[in-house]
Amino acid sequence: MKAQSERPLRVLVADDHPTNRAVIEIILDLVSAAAVSVENGQQALMAFKTEEFDVVLMDLQMPVMDGLTAIREIRKHEIATDRRRTPVLAVTANALSEHVAASKEAGADRHIAKPVTPELLLAAISAELERARAVVDEVRAKVRKTGS
Fold first, then answer.
1. pTM higher than 0.90, yes or no?
2. Of the candidates 82, 40, 73, 35, the residue with the CA atom closest to the CA atom of residue 54
3. What is the pLDDT of residues 111-144, one digit of tens each?
4. How far is it, in rounded angstroms, from Cα 129 to Cα 100?
5. HEC states along 27-42?
6. Is residue 144 part of a domain?
7. How many domains are there within the chain?
8. Torsion on CA atoms 63, 64, 66, 69, rounded to nearest 10
């Protein structure tokens, strides 16, 4: 799985549990993705502000700053800095419908319940990247159409 420029996919992984981070890193390694792992939402937000990522995988329940707050802050930062929207996938043990609704309301593009399998996680990442590319292509087409 490669990013648009054929460089390795860059993924921000935010989860307070070391085993969960390790499992996700192993899955990402299957597709030679470059993972940056952090332990809480505040660290995720700091990493997001200083580095470019193709996708963010965010746990919801973490110390210091929870995942929902971190997602909201990421979306605010994207708007404030005119940065492209990065796909954010909530990866969490919180799988009830109200949890899914809360993650979507915060700005997550997808909600994945733990435990994750390689097939599920990689398919979800791929689908969100394709959706993001389609939006970019649509905008480019509109710009070309209005510019001609």
1. no
2. 35
3. 999 999 999 999 999 999 988 777 766 666 667 7
4. 20
5. HHHCCCCEEEEECCHH
6. no
7. 1
8. 180
